[in-house]
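Pinned message: reference record for RNA polymerase Rpb1 domain-containing protein
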Amino acid sequence: MNIPLIGDAAEDEGVARRIAFEIETTVLDNVASLKADSTNMVIEVQLINSALSARGLTKEEIADKLNKVRLLRGLVEVRDFDILIRCDEPSFKKLQMIYEAAKAAKIKGIDGITRAVLARDEKTGRWYIVTEGSNLKEVLKVPSVDAERTMTNSILEIGEVLGIEAARNSIIKEAKGTLGEAGLNVDTRHIMLVSDLMTNDGAVKAIGRHGISGRKSSVLARAAFEITAPHLLRAAMNGEVDNLEGVAENIIVGQPVTLGTGAVNLVYSPKKKKGDKK
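Predicted structure (tokens):
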């Protein structure tokens, strides 16, 4: 995602970094070091104060989040400088499960966004955030985020949050950007045709066999795209009939396509010259 900022966050690096930490998913492993004590069947969580300060977290908030994890519920104990997680069974396997659950426990941030990096626009000097992962619906709720200019390359999310027309425009933008980076100049109308085909029924569909190509009525056209044998076998079991009305299926059987000049039958009767017999 590309997330422009507004207000003080766009001008102040410190404010922008706090917004980035609000968006980035923080797990316990990011703010603490964990040590499993198999002798006493406990896990010691040693908090990293600098990481806590940067992310605006406290020891009590972390303990509260850990208590909400099902496997850790009721096992978390807050001590003077760290947190202790006790294993409720004398089992090394259970201790390892608790260790893994605690290490991956979500403390803060938005689901789906594993990393948020600050960047600065060279032209305007304003700060913006680039993320790994996407969650458009939740990011738009974050204060100081410019909702009108926030972009994601997740077309499905755009369709769910902003509607099918926004998803269509996103397909055009992403396709043009990808082709342009490869040095290919494709007429926008070709890309618009593909985007219209992918969104014409109100939902975003893929081009592959799980989308448009897999929904074709022609058996041979589906088989020509991918997984030929399963398509033919399933069609034979269901007794499907192919009327050979499209391009691919007519090329496969070696006959003219019923489009353009192939859509009409032309009979030419030359003019008869004088003296020719009837």
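Pinned by admin. Summary line: The radius of gyration is 31 Å.
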